[in-house]
Specification:
disordered C terminus, 2 strands, two-stranded antiparallel ribbon, mainly alpha, about 65% helix
Length: about 210
């Protein structure tokens, strides 16, 4: 059996499908986690609900435009190359959100990047992976493959959202000064009530009597 990726025909097997499932799982974990933590992170930076809404709106609009562009390029470019480009953009987006503090820069980054403000899987990866899945299986197994893909995505997103409570869980087990994976660099923090951000590791430490200085 052969499949076509942007004009290149290659022999395929279950390995490609397994890799797509793995990628969907990893992305679902990140999307579910970010859907809970991202608003709390922006609140900790000192932004108002309106500003947070602007960031989310910019992310959704940018994602829609980028997805249309990928759909236009997908018929003439190798799908693997587009997936790798999308993965690189995702990494750069994550690094940018972790290091930038300017509201304008965050809005621009949300628009041009791949940040997902919702727990659902949206963006450039879905149409690309759907195209690859459709070309990798025969007609009889296609519905089953897509059903498993959707199931993996839904379950991983749910687990990712559940993992957002991990910092509070560490505090409940008296883990001493759990600040090693704090999501917000100290110099960039603005004065905000710590109790409102118990989802964040260091904020949990501050709010808990177990972590008093």
């Amino acid at each position: 059996m052969t499949s076509e990726y942007g004009g290149e025909r290659r022999s395929t097997g279950s390995s490609t499908i397994a890799l797509l499932y793995a990628a969907r799982t990893a992305r679902g974990l990140g999307d579910g986690f970010a859907a809970i933590v991202l608003p709390a992170y922006l609140v900790e930076l000192g932004y108002s609900p309106f500003q947070i809404g602007v960031v989310a709106t910019g992310a959704l609009l940018g994602t829609a435009i980028l997805t249309l562009g990928v759909g236009w390029l997908g018929s003439s470019r190798p799908l693997r190359g587009l997936l790798l480009a999308g993965a690189l953009i995702m990494v750069l987006t994550g690094v940018g959100f972790a290091t930038l503090d300017s509201f304008l820069l965050l809005v621009i980054l949300a628009f041009v990047g791949t940040i997902n403000p919702s727990s659902g899987d949206i963006g450039i990866f879905v149409p690309l992976e759907h195209a690859m899945l459709a070309s990798d299986v025969d007609d009889k197994r296609r519905t089953l493959i897509f059903a498993r893909y959707s199931l993996v995505g839904g379950l991983s997103s749910a687990v990712g959202a559940l993992l957002a409570m991990a910092p509070d869980l560490f505090v409940s087990f008296d883990v001493p000064r759990y600040t090693g994976c704090c999501l917000i660099p100290g110099p960039q923090r603005r004065s905000r009530p710590a109790a409102r951000l118990s989802v964040l590791p260091e904020a949990s430490c501050i709010a808990s009597p177990h972590f008093s200085a």
